[in-house]
Every structure is written in structure tokens, then in C-alpha cells.
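A reminder from the course coordinator: this example appears on the midterm review sheet, so study it carefully.

Given structure:
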């Protein structure tokens, strides 16, 4: 693992500056790393020491410590990103370029989980996790905003100068807040709204009160009718397997159901992408991620009629993958919606304050969500080559946002996509 360490010195402190020497770190910090001075107006002390790592190996202890005691998003956990890099990142030609900022006591102030993605002509600075992260951003110590805060823009300029060569910067799907703290990347230039927002709802700990507020009398009546119809096929139960074989079997049912759903809608099957299936299965089997990965299915009698794969993190449940068995007779009676309500009830009963429907402006979310979370993209050129590579990406970004944020166009697009998917594939004539 190659590491570069630079103390970034502040100008506002009255403390004397430490010498720029080779440091012998103790505890969780890297050992014997070269240092040099870069000045900046930090309030913590004269120096914030910054290291750049081309591997996640060796960072697990400090990373998990920051997860537990600081602010971060569920998709930036060590388990999530290390698993992604192992199974997906290497297929997508992404090399980690993780930046860690340290205080004078050897504690991490922030981690920027970045990577360099090699393309045919240009190299792009990206967040690790790619499309498997609904939200992107840094991990921040609880004291970050107090000690760096609005000076992050200058710090970011200095950090970028330390990074390996890159031509384009593409940091997307960033929310305005990382936990309780303002996202420091909202200070950078060239921010644009992402093509979709995210949506969540506050459960407030009591399902009965929440359900009573959210559903009209007519909706409640229809919910009861659906449950009665489903019960005709056998006992209706939300099952969360606690053994590995059961969890994997539930996931396999989800993959089968979701694959048919993607085909029906004309959407590319994510499970066909290199490493994706291994990523999900690895997380299910990973003891370090076990508490966060929530696998469940709705069973009618002995049949699995709906499935779900979610993520629990610091009192928030993220609703990531869900589907239903469109070939089962019960499909007419909304098993997916019944599963969703059972899942929301379970999360409320287990102390989750928020149910995050995550990214996407699907219409059904309006029934539940009172909070819209805007997401932002930072797309910029870092070289002359980057300026040439940037233009098609900017055009694509604007086109996607126009299509998704124009209801009439989006409805037409989704219908056309599904219609094209219904046409049989043209097969070459046999010789």
C-alpha cells in the first residue's frame, strides 16, 4: 500500500508549527510517512495531516471508528466499500485513492473515499462504490465542522494537488448533509442537481400512529382487502431469515423476481454486470456487515410472493431492492405493497426513526414520504484532455435530468422502453 502524508498548516492558530519531518505514528495511524507543509486557515491547530492511500487495506480500524463516532452515510461504511472494490471496482478499472485527514492526536478528522477510474482516453476522479451507492460523500468526525467548516474549499484544492493525475472530476449523488453536519462538498464550484432526488419518511417510533396519519380511510379499506385476498393462499407473514442458508435463499428469490421485472420494464439487469451478484452475496455472508444487511420476504403459505434487500444504519432503514413474483396468482393483490407496510412496521417497532426510500422519484413514494432530499453532482475538468472528455458527460447529465424531471416525457420514455422490451429479439437465421 503506498501512502503519502502531508501536514496542511493553518494560519489562524497561535500555536507554533510542528517541524515537517518523517513521522513515526502510533496506534491506528500509518507509520513512517513523508510529510511536507501546505498552508491553510484551519482552526484546530496549524496542521491537518493528510494521507492518500491506494488501497483500503490497513484502514479498517480507523474507518470503523469514524463510522461509529462520526457522521457518514450508510453506503460509505468500510464493509460496503471494501466489498465493492473487491468485486466491482476492479472490473470497472477503479483504483482507490482514499484521503484521510488526521488531527494532532492521531485521530481521523475525515475520510474521502475516492478513486481514479481509467477510461480509454481520460482518468476520472470518482467516489468509490459507483452505481451501488445511492448517496455519496465523505466520512466526518464529530468535530469536523467546528475545526474545518467553511474552509473546506481551500483544503479540497490542496488535497486535489496531492492526488494522482486525473482529467475529469465526477462526484455525484451528494446530499446536502452528512448525518448532522453540512456536507463540505456543497462548497465546491460547478454543482448541479442530480437527475433524481431521494425520498424518506419519519416513522417516529409508533407504526399505528404513523399509519393512521398516512393512509386515508379508503386506502386502509383497500389494504385490508388485499390482506384478506392474500390470506386465501395461506398465512401471510414477513420472514427475516437468521441463518445463512435462509438469507441466501431469500436473496436468490429476489434476484429471480427482479430479473423478470427488469426484463418486463426494458431495464438492463444489474445482476448481469461483472461482480454485482458477488458483491451482494459477499455482504450477506460478511459477519462485519451482518447487523446492517436486512434480508426478508413475504410468504403466503409456503410460497415467497415478494422479496426485499435493505440496509439498517444508525436508526435509518434504506429500502434498496424489492420485488414480487409476477407469475404467482397472488400478484393481483399487491404483495409488494403489503410487504412494504410489514417492513415499515417492523422498522418502527425496532427503533428506526427514518425509512429511506432512497434515490428515484417513483410515484408510489408520494404516498409515504414527506421529506425530499435533493442530490448534487460535481462535474469539472482537471486538464485540457478533461475539457474534451467533459462535454459529452455534461450533455448526458442534462438530458437525463430533463427526461426524468419532465413528467410527460418520462411517462412516454418508460412506456416506449417497456414496449421495446416486449418485442422478441431478432435471431440470426441458422445456417
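Designed residues:
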Amino acid at each position: 500500500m503506498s501512502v503519502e502524508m502531508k501536514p496542511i498548516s493553518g494560519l489562524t492558530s497561535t500555536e507554533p508549527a510542528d517541524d515537517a519531518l518523517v513521522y513515526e505514528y502510533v496506534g491506528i495511524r500509518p507509520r513512517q510517512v513523508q510529510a511536507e507543509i501546505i498552508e491553510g486557515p484551519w482552526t484546530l491547530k496549524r496542521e491537518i495531516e493528510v494521507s492518500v492511500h491506494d488501497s483500503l487495506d490497513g484502514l479498517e480500524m480507523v474507518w470503523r471508528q469514524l463510522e461509529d463516532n462520526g457522521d457518514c452515510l450508510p453506503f460509505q461504511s468500510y464493509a460496503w466499500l471494501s466489498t465493492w472494490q473487491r468485486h466491482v471496482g476492479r472490473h470497472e478499472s477503479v483504483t482507490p485513492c482514499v484521503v484521510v485527514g488526521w488531527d494532532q492526536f492521531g485521530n481521523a478528522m475525515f475520510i474521502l473515499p475516492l478513486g481514479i477510474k481509467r477510461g480509454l482516453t481520460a482518468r476520472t476522479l470518482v467516489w468509490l462504490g459507483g452505481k451501488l451507492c445511492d448517496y455519496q460523500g465523505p466520512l466526518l468526525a464529530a468535530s469536523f465542522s467546528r475545526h474545518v467548516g467553511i474552509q473546506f474549499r481551500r483544503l479540497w484544492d490542496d488535497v486535489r494537488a496531492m492526488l494522482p493525475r486525473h482529467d475529469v472530476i465526477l462526484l455525484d449523488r451528494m446530499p446536502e448533509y452528512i448525518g448532522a453536519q453540512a456536507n463540505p462538498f456543497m462548497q465546491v464550484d460547478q454543482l448541479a442537481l442530480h437527475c433524481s432526488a431521494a425520498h424518506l419518511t419519519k416513522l417516529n417510533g409508533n407504526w399505528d400512529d404513523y399509519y393512521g396519519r398516512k393512509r386515508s380511510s379508503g386506502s386502509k379499506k383497500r389494504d385490508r382487502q388485499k390482506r384478506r385476498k392474500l390470506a386465501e393462499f395461506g398465512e401471510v407473514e414477513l420472514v427475516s431469515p437468521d441463518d445463512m442458508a435462509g438469507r441466501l435463499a431469500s436473496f436468490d428469490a429476489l434476484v429471480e423476481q427482479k430479473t423478470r421485472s427488469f426484463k418486463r420494464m426494458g431495464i438492463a439487469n444489474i445482476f448481469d454486470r461483472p461482480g454485482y451478484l458477488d458483491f451482494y452475496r459477499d455482504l450477506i455472508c460478511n459477519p462485519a456487515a451482518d447487523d446492517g444487511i436486512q434480508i426478508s420476504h413475504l410468504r403466503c403459505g409456503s410460497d415467497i410472493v415478494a422479496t426485499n434487500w435493505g440496509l439498517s444504519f444508525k436508526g435509518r432503514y434504506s429500502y434498496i431492492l424489492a420485488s414480487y413474483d409476477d407469475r404467482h396468482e397472488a400478484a393481483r393483490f399487491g404483495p409488494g405493497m403489503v410487504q412494504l407496510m410489514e417492513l415499515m412496521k417492523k422498522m418502527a417497532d425496532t427503533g428506526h426513526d427514518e425509512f429511506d426510500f432512497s434515490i428515484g422519484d417513483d410515484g408510489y413514494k408520494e404516498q409515504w414520504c414527506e421529506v425530499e432530499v435533493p442530490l448534487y453532482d460535481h462535474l469539472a475538468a482537471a486538464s485540457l484532455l478533461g475539457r474534451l472528455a467533459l462535454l459529452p458527460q455534461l450533455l448526458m447529465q442534462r438530458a437525463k435530468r430533463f427526461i426524468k424531471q419532465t413528467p410527460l416525457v418520462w411517462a412516454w420514455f418508460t412506456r416506449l422502453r417497456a414496449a421495446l422490451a416486449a418485442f422478441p429479439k431478432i435471431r440470426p437465421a441458422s445456417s
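The first strand starts at residue 3 and ends at 9. The CA atoms of residues 284 and 428 lie 41 Å apart.
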